[in-house]
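From: lab user (bench 3)
To: helpdesk
Subject: output format question, protein + 3-isopropylmalic acid

Hello, I'm new to running complex predictions and I'm not sure whether the block I got back is the full result or only part of it. Here's what I submitted:
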Amino acid sequence: MKIAILPGDGIGPEVTEQARRVLDALDLPKLTIWEGDVGGIAYKRHGHPLPQETLEMARASDAVLFGAVGDPECDELPREHRPEQAILGLRSELGLFANLRPAAGYPGLEGMSSLRPEIARGIDLLVVRELNGDVYFGDKGERGSDGGREGWDAMSYNEAEVRRIAHTGFQAAQKRRGRLTSVDKANVLETSRIWRETVIEVAKEYPEVELDHMYVDNAAMQMVRSPGQFDVILTGNLFGDILSDQASACVGSIGLLASASMGERQTKFGTFGLYEPIHGSAPDIAGQGKANPVAAILSLAMLLRHSLGCETEAGRIERAVAKVVASEVRGADLGGTASTSEIGDAVLRQLTALS
Ligand code: IPM
Ligand code: MG
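Helpdesk reply: Thanks, we reran it on our side. This is the complete output you should expect:
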């Protein structure tokens, strides 16, 4: 088994360090771990945010644990050299089209949500975000216009792209509460019309899943009005980017939410995937020990489950984290004073207690 760890920028190295400690504590047999540069740090060291050797390392692994990319010092660089291109490049080069972003409330954390506790209590949803298409990867550019320089980005989805992510969404719903909400903007966008028609087609193969459709504006409103109504939210790249951040604020802190990005490649142990906290590089708090490593540790749990077939270990990590989150050991994001490594220590203690 081989795992590539790509810590990246900002708080990425701090949070992945804690995930690495948890991984080491599991003492998995025959595990190789290697680390590579990615993002702004990679640009500074190698002249590219996604160096060829990092990409090759990811390809040669069974799974990738990713920290975060983004560095204000790189803000002025042309788009192809910006740190964000590293994660976009990995997603497209590795064919990681399915992004799973679970958001569930933790008992005891209702008070941290931006929502009233009685509304926050019911959150247990999964955003299934398409990750290889949409306006993210369409042609784009700048041109002249009567109104001065004009930026443009092409948005598109074809049926094959929608079909494969729809299958992921329906299969996830089968394993959960059997409800799927497809989010689009079919009242305005042609992209969304094809999206919706294709999702309806695919739904015929999953008669036991209850499907409904929501326009993205309504979905954003419903998510803060009554998030408990959602089970699986199936949506495109751009809407999924926005709604998954919103879901994290509903739960309480973006520092708690993990994600998996998966494609079709099967490894000896499961499905190849890249796992990352959904928070970014948070340069304002980088290097201060203030970052919450929980999202990175939970990303490791997802990695163990989906890519390495280690369900028992994944479950243990999740139970250990739940105990820590419910305890007094809280980081600044949750109104506490615990440092990044103290939260890591607490997770390790709980893990030992559970074994
Ligand atoms: C995310 C991030 C990325 C995205 C950025 C860093 C390119 O916001 O993973 O949600 O927009 O997909
Ligand atoms: Mg985002």
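A quick orientation on your result: The two ends are 22 Å apart (CA to CA). Let us know if anything else is unclear.
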